[in-house]
Amino acid sequence: xxxxxQLVRFIYxxxxxxxxxxxxxxxxxxxxxVCISGYAIAGGLTWYSLKKIKQxxxxxxxxxxxxxxxxxxxxxxxxxxxxxxxxxxxILNGFMGTLLGYYAFLVTFIGLxxxxxx
Length: 118
Prior knowledge:
Elements: H1 2-19, H2 32-55, H3 63-77, E1 81-83, E2 86-88, H4 93-100, H5 103-117
Antiparallel strand pairs: 1-2
Helix pairs in contact: 2-5, 3-5, 4-5
């Protein structure tokens, strides 16, 4: 019975952590110049990744793997594990970078985009 109550308590805390919907950095904390620079760097890296993917002899061969890992990234990053006083979540960046190469930046970009809107 004690184990059952511990499991129920863990699931409850996991659900509470998953429902906690906040950004890592509060609004207005970062100056606009830093935000604009970040967007410029992200745009440049996206362009560079697309350029490198275009140079690949068969760029369509990695699309199914990239799609699967985009879904895995989105799902895993939305599961928050309570670790007092905060919670943690996996992001799989190293794993995706190893498996996908230049596709990893786009996979992360799409996964974060989905995370912002859903």
